[in-house]
């Protein structure tokens, strides 16, 4: 009987500490979406280099989309860049509790962005900043 009581007390303490962390998912959603956004930006850069065409990135407050230039020196992106997992147009929707700063830029065929970018992802009290370096296109 004492073991059962001690076990129940320990479970109660763990529940009191852990449950409030999972009650608000906004912080977790912001971190997860910022990681997915970094991955998508790296994919866009690698696709631009591999296909030797510009890849345009359009980030709104609720989604990211990637499009591909029609030819090597194309000034605009008119073709959809397929998502390798689904083979449909690449679109990454943000969770409802997450807001993202707007950005619009492109990677050239050497993987360089058209301009340096600083993208902010926020949810609850968690604010993540994603930076794209001008000369190298490095995403951090």
TrEMBL record:
Gene3D superfamilies, per database record: Glycoprotein, Type 4 Pilin (3.30.700.10)
Ranges where the General secretion pathway GspH domain occurs: 35-132
Alphabetically ordered keywords of this record: Cell inner membrane, Cell membrane, Membrane, Methylation, Transmembrane, Transmembrane helix
- Top-level division of the source organism's lineage: Bacteria
**What is the protein's membrane topology class?**
Single-pass membrane protein
Name the family.
Belongs to the GSP H family.
Q: What is this protein called?
A: Type II secretion system protein H
